[in-house]
Structures are given as C-alpha cells and as structure tokens.
Amino acid sequence: MIGIQPVDKIRAAEREFAEANPDVNLMLRAADQVAELAERMVPSGTILVVVGPGNNGGDGLFAARKLVRDGRRQVMVWPVAGTAHPQGVVAARQVGIRFLNDLEVGRLLPDIALVIDGITGIGGRTGLPENVHWFAEMCDVLKIPVLAIDIPSGLAAEDHHRPAHVLAATRTITFAAPKLCHLAQPAASACGDVEVADIGLELPKSNLRQMQRMDVARWWPWPTPYTDKYSRGVLGIDTGSDRYPGAAVLPVTGAVYSGAGMIRFTGPDRLADLILHKLPSVTVGSGRVEAWLVGCGWSEEGAEQRFGPILESGVPLVIDADALRYLPKRLPEGSLLTPHAGELAELLGISRPEVEDDPVGKAYEAAERWETTVLLKGATQYIANPFEKRVTLAIAGPSWTAQAGSGDVLAGICGTLLAAGLPAPKAAALAASVQAMAAARKPGPFPPDVVAQAIPEVLVHLAELADQPVLAGDLTPRSIAAQ
Ligand SMILES: NC(=O)C1=CN([C@@H]2O[C@H](COP(=O)(O)OP(=O)(O)OC[C@H]3O[C@@H](n4cnc5c(N)ncnc54)[C@H](O)[C@@H]3O)[C@@H](O)[C@H]2O)[C@@H](O)CC1
Ligand SMILES: Nc1ncnc2c1ncn2[C@@H]1O[C@H](COP(=O)(O)OP(=O)(O)O)[C@@H](O)[C@H]1O
What we know:
Rossmann fold, binds adenosine-5'-diphosphate, UDP-N-acetylmuramoyl-L-alanine:D-glutamate ligase, binds ligand NAX, 2 domains, 11-stranded mixed sheet, EC 4.2.1.136, 18 strands, alpha/beta
C-alpha cells in the first residue's frame, strides 16, 4: 500500500527535514534525480527545460546544470514567467546554458529530444499559464517526450480533474510520495509513467492510499490443505430479472472465476437454467451462506420483496445496482455498497456531477452515513472505509472495462471475497484490483465475462508473488518454472 500525500504534509516534512539537516539541499537532491531520469529517457539530443517562477523551476534549473555537466549535450532553458528561481538562474548561467524567449522556443522546438517541465509542481493551481498553451499543444503534435518534475503543469496536486490545457507528460518524477493527481483519473492520464523518488523526507501515515500488486498477493484468501468448499465460503446470489437475464449470469461468472467455494443461486428459475448451461458448478436454491450478493439487474418490480428476507439473514451483503434504492438505515455488519457515480448521487440526494467533482469526499460521506464500506466504481475506484477513516484507490485497469456488465462481474468477485470471510474494505479493494488486472491481460473490447475468465491467470501470477504453493510438496510456482 502506498500513501498518497496532500501538499501540506509534504511541505511540513520538508520543513522538518530542513531543520534537522541544515547542510542538505533538498532541491539539489530532487534535481539530481530529475537529471538522472532524463538521461535514461534520452541518452543524447538537445533538452529544453521549461521553468516557472517557483521552486519547481528551481529543480529544473539545477537539473539543467547537472545535465550539461554530466553529458556533452546541449541544454536550453525557457523561463516562461520572465522570472525564475534566482540561485537556479545563476547556477545555469554559470555553466553557459542558453536562455530562450518564446520565439526562439517556437523555432527550435522540432529539434528538441526532451522537454523537462518545471513550470509548476505542488504549488500549481489548475490550468496552464496562457502563454504556454501553444507550447503544450506543439509538444503533443510533434510527439516530443515530456518529463514532468513533480506534477505535470496544468494539474493541481490534490485534484483529479484534467483541465483543457495541461502539459501532458510521458513520465513524471515526483518526490517522497504520489499525490492524488498522479493516480486518480482523468488527471492521471496526463502524468504518463509515474516514478516516486526518495529524497529523504519522512512522511506520516496517510488516510488516502493506493493498492499495490503485492497487497493483492498478500491479502488474497489462498486455499490451503485444510480448505473445503464450505470453508472457502458459500455465496448466495440473488440477481437478474426477465428484463436483465445477463445480470444473473455475469455476477455468477465473476464469483466462480475468482474462486467462490460454492454458489447458491436463488434468482428466477429461468435464469438458473441459463447459468447452469454456462457454469454447471453453481447450485440452485437456498441454504446456508456466508454472504449474499443482491441487486444486479433486479429492475424495480419485486425488488423490495426480494431484498427483505435477505436483509434479515444478517450475513454481510454486497449491495449493487437496483438494491441500492432500497437501503434500510442499518445494514448487516460487514456489508459493502458498490455504486457507480450516478447511483451514489441518488443515494446522497445530489447530482452526478457533484459526485464526479469530489469522488473521495462523496464516497466517504455515504460510507459514514450507512456505517458501511462503499466501493465507488469508475475509471478510478475508491473504497471508503468509515471504520479506519480512510479511502483506498484500487489498482486501475484499461478503460475497455467501461462497458455494461463489468459492474455485475465486479459485484460477483466482491461476493466471493466477502463469503471467504474478508472484511468488506479488503474484499472491495482486492476485487476491483483483480478485475482491473484481468482486464489488463485482455486489453481490448473483450466482454466482461471473458475478462472474468482471465482472473485465474492473474491469480497464478499473484500466487508466485506471494510464494504460494500450487502443488503438494514444497514446490512453489517459481520452483516449478525452474524445472
Ligand atoms: N516541497 C518539497 O519537498 C520539495 C519541493 N521541491 C520542488 O518545489 C516545488 C514546489 O515549489 P513552489 O511551492 O515554489 O511551487 P511551484 O514552483 O510548484 O509553483 C509556484 C509558482 O507558480 C505560480 N503558479 C501556480 N499555478 C499557476 C498557474 N496555474 N498558472 C500560472 N502560474 C502558476 C505561483 O503563483 C507561484 O509563483 C515542488 O513541486 C518541487 O518541484 C524540490 O525542490 C524538493 C523539495
Ligand atoms: N473508464 C473506465 N476505465 C476502467 N474501468 C471502468 C471505467 N469506467 C467504468 N469502469 C468499470 O466498469 C464497471 C461499470 O460498472 P457499472 O456501471 O455498475 O456496470 P454494469 O451495471 O453495467 O455492470 C465498473 O466495474 C468500473 O470499474
């Protein structure tokens, strides 16, 4: 898990570091890392460092000096605000770096191998200074690689919006910890590959976090020799309707391919036949379950009657789609709500744009109101955990997943993990991440049930990461591969 840090915490850590280490210049540390990454990105060719008026520009100027000294290449600087970090300017001029004006930049741009963006970093407000709009567009048109220092200029560190004008990066090097804009869409789409560089800052634990593959590997409920179908977790699924028959098949597919011990389907009989045709391991009819999944494709008719008895069972529920309209004030302990932005808006009695404007805040608000875990779905998936007062971002996948039925499959995976006994925040973070990783293995317009079928491949890979044996004896996947 990686902590996502707000700007005030970064600045506080920087102050503490400066007090404790008066002889260390953090800007030089940052600049060295920028220069080193620039060398890796383009080993030769002219580099243009674009600098703004603040410390982000300072990083750029010291990186420029380093690049001139270390390599025998041409480095030029464009100070877009007229003024720039004074010591940085002196340092750059000392090594003979040429400072350009707008006209010169326009003329030389086609021959630039790399642009380093030091216009704004964590001090940046949303939006690019007007006099560089043309430049951002030209970099895009000419396909010039851009290395952003800390934050691509135009983005604001704690904001997930992507404004119309942004200097989109090929890579971003940020310091100490990622910021929300690096990970949350659509802002993240302007950051390219993000590298977090250690410059020695100590940061406190954050209540906003990003899942890592290793977390999925560690937390996944791997079966053991003591496991049987019951102990792996029996999941009850009541989903689908005549209007939405696929909403019965898809969640069950998600649940089966993520390893449910047993599934009891209690939806309409006709849909049970459909499911059995595809997935004969599913059982039909009621019985003891460890968790329920409800709501996908219920449509409105009869929804409340279906929901009532299941709510009374008291086991944890995954509550999706139509069932979200009938939430009681108190939910069974350990339950999980899985709304998309529109459904969350309806739950909170606000508009969809209000949710889209503040997904972290609104997911958390619903989690607090119902005292339960909320998984807000979308391009970035947020898991709000009101018990530990934090929000976790799931691992993200390709946008191909944005299709009807993906949410149904995701609900099924959540159900498997709740039935396995995982607490809802973990179940949600794992399910959303694994679906994204499966989609990354099938990058294209594969239907959601085909993406679900890639989950076992993802798990085999993760088992290797967690060093989980897959055969009797001591053989781990790694040792098998070595045969
Ligand atoms: N805080 C830290 O830990 C460290 C910070 N460093 C660098 O310092 C940066 C932060 O420096 P600053 O606080 O000076 O902030 P920035 O350099 O990010 O930006 C501040 C300046 O840009 C202007 N500005 C902001 N948004 C604008 C916009 N949309 N249009 C036009 N002008 C805009 C502001 O008015 C201000 O003059 C970091 O991002 C990083 O690059 C590094 O030197 C290493 C240590
Ligand atoms: N831009 C996107 N990139 C990746 N995944 C997305 C994107 N938009 C939506 N998704 C995924 O698509 C699913 C949509 O869920 P939902 O709207 O409930 O679909 P349905 O109800 O049709 O199954 C979610 O699982 C979400 O993760």
